[in-house]
Amino acid sequence: MRRTHLLAVACALPLALASCSGGDAATSGASASAAAISGTVVFWDTTAPNGQSAASQELVNSFAQTYPNVNVEYTNIPAAEAEAKFVAAVQAGEAPDVIRAEASWTPAFAAAGYLQPLDDTPLADDAEAFLPAALASTKVIGQMWAVPQDVDAPALLCNDALLAKAGATVPTTWAQVAEQAPKVTAAGATMLYGPTSGLFVLPYIYASGGNMLNTEDKKILINDPQSVAGFQTALDLIAAGAAVRPNRNDAYTEQQAQFKEGRVACVINGAWSVGDALTGPAFADSTNLSVNLPPGGAEAGASPMEGHNLAVSGGAQDKEAAYAFVGYLNSQASQVQLAQAAGLLPARQDAYTQVESTTPTGRFVALFAPVVQAAEPQPGVAELRQLYVPMDEQWIKMYSGQASAQDGANATAAAWLTLLPTDYTD
Fold first, then answer.
1. What is the pLDDT of residue 31?
2. Which are the contacts of 302, defined by CB distance < 8 A and separation ≥ 6?
3. I need a labelling partner for 168 at 20 to 30 A (CA). Which of 181, 299, 382, 388 fits?
4. Global confidence as pTM
5. Exposed, middle or buried by CB within 10 Å (0-12, 13-18, 19+), for 311?
6. How confident is the model at residue 313, as a pLDDT?
């Protein structure tokens, strides 16, 4: 599933060319205070080479104009390689000063002592400007270790023309998915594609009032009754034919193919997937693709927050320069520029009001705003990425009929007990 970002493809659309060309840098010229900061900042950027990295480099160049005495050594690292390379670089004493990292890496990097705590730096002064769930991804062990740059959260993406043809509407609850599925079936398609992995089961779990962990009480929640009810909701939709049973060999690819071809009306997926979806015949008219909150249940619809953070290495030599650099890249103007030029969803709440929504890129940024605002933070534990491995394995067993919702959830919890600190309980 990994994410080259949605809206880079939207920028390939003819109507979007003008809005995706970059625009003015987020600066008004060097100030006396900026000129007083000096040093070198080694920056590892993980933006994709599809328009994202060019937009990021433009901001780096603008920073150099505002901070003439700071030298930025820029390197674009493939996202799939960045985590391992960063760990190796830290261990060799050659870590970059600043890294753009997946939000899910932050807890492990912080726990390992790789990052500089930011609570007592200027970067913490602006913390309330960020989406709460995005900010939560930067806080581990009671401290702030990074700042959010961009976010993503799975939405209910729908083929509005197919729904209209079937006489159906975008569902706002999982019950409505089941109720409207026969209409879509009669139109020759399926209402929904089932969750492709454990991450994509979370909207079902949240709607039932469940969650993964309670990190304050050190309690595993994945096999509590509410969470099990979420798993069961997904399984019931699959059993009823309202959702496609995932292909255990490559569910994500099959889901995308069926959505692009108009064989499923809706999918739960993130902004990273929209660019690919727009290449399909079902979305020759990009306005046919709608972005909606995940369906709700006992609780309002929500999905897990994902994204990228900017972190300062613990071994950074010129920390004042590094803080100034991260602060510049994360200003409102800079996040707006990245959104308009590359389609990255801003982590700052105040950026969404400034994005031009009349362009294809800006339209999707605006449509995802309610989704990311409603998103749930993922647990801030160093083992977060490891937790999804047994969850994925058990979800496959559940939808393959090899385990019930309760048994699969219990097995997931048992595996988590071996991964989490020993003070966690089931």
1. 55
2. 203, 206, 207, 293, 294, 374, 375, 376
3. 299
4. 0.91
5. buried
6. 98
